[in-house]
Amino acid sequence: MFKNIICLLFLLVSSPALGLEIAGVTIPESLSPALQLNGAGIRSKLFFKIYIAELYLEHPSPLATTILDGPGRKRVVMHFLYDEVKKEKLVESWNDGFTANLSPEQLKKLSSKIQQFNDLFVDIHEGEEIILDYSPDQGTVVSIAGESKGTIEGKDFNRALLSIWLGDKPVTNDLRDALLGKK
Q: Does pTM surpass 0.90?
């Protein structure tokens, strides 16, 4: 009996955490040995929960500038909680985020990449995910509801994209803090 209790305690102590739970969705602590959860939180608008954002990094950090300028793979997962978000609303939100966090010169320089990015989107429904997966040798791969939609090349574009959540004027300060692991 004592041996069984010791074995049970060993299993409980040595088993890894499955992850966080946000709004009934389990968020893994890692996606692979290389990508670790930096932070996760809910994007709300008024009283509506729109999506859960998760930020995974090869080199986790609580500092936005380190994440934006740092090397390595980066992934944002957006798990949608709202019934439906129309393509037009997504594109409008992306463009608002880019405009708020980029200078006019940066916007002009990235305009073709931003347009290419916006063209990849479709209406999103509850339970679907948008995955924005950056690797330095490939660029930002956009997947929607499990289907790869396209790749936007360049670290400059990925930095601009991540600035929507982590820049000086993020989509919300609460979500920014959550993605930085401060909440």
A: no
